[in-house]
Prior knowledge:
- Helices cover about 45% and strands about 15% of the residues.
- By secondary structure, the chain is an alpha/beta fold.
- The protein has three domains: about 5-60, no CATH class; about 80-215, no CATH class; about 225-330.
- The protein is globular.
- The N and C termini lie far apart (about 70 Å).
Amino acid sequence: MSVDLDFLSSLDDGLISTDLLRRSGVDPRGIECLIGLSELVRLRRGWYVTATEWKAAGRDGRYRFMIRATNASSPKSLVAAHLSAAAMHRLPTIGNWPSELHTFDPRASGGSTSRLITTHRSGPPAETVVIDGIEVVALERTLVDVAVNECPERAVTAIDAALRRDAVRYATDLRQRGEGEARLVRPALTTDTLLCELDNVAPPFHRARAESVIRFADARAGSPGESLSRVRMRQGRFVIPDLQVRFPDILGSYAEVDFYLEGIRKAQEFDGKVKYTRGAIVKEGDDPGEIVWLEKQREDALRRQEAVESFDRWTWDMVLPLKKFCRFLQEKGMPELRAGAAHARSAG
């Protein structure tokens, strides 16, 4: 059997249909053979992706493939919503993505669920955009839907990422256009934007929780792990540190720490990824040992700062279990909110 799967994959951004395979000379038996040889992965009935694409896609990309394949398999056009829309908007999540496609259809007689599709109908009609060839609920509405319907861990992570990404987009657009054309730049997504959208949706349930989540979100959070860490601190009633605090004169440049409590001079970092000073450039193929050494030098330099009395680190396996993370913070002397105290963002 001779078929150029990479070429077929390029025709529809990775998706390959049974019809395309047949027109390329691959019969049903040949398709099963390609699957058995681990060259092809079946997404949904009639839709496939090459094993190479599947492996490279990662968890988020694989769910987007499933969304697109489910949409392509449907007899009618679907509008991706809720977590499915979040995935299409390239937002992160905590935990696994759903196994089914979540859609929005205000004309449906009621919310419904099948093995492949969950349909939501509550709320006013939603603005949509087209991403990767399918219709998707617009970003603001998607974030509000996630805030209303999902746990704080998922919701804060998604909203933090969206706020951060759009703040970067806005700053970049302003820089490129210059002050004279600032009025032409699309405003950045903000907490107020999302609160207005929440008012528009007017959910009958979980509104207070959604508003609390939206107000807690912060564009300064640098990663999903940092977002989850903040949620865990809030759930454990710890004082919320300041974010992305910069320290000058670190190895000839400067360094930022994920969290900082000025009142007790405590620096903290989530270690889901290696961090470096902005002056250091680590290229692909560099020695991992050298990378670890650079990070150790950075941490040692931070510890020598008068403003840093203690330095804490944690990883995914520590922050995912709430009780374990709370015990860790208590052992490290993290200040807790007093009973009845207003929620604070800094110990300083």
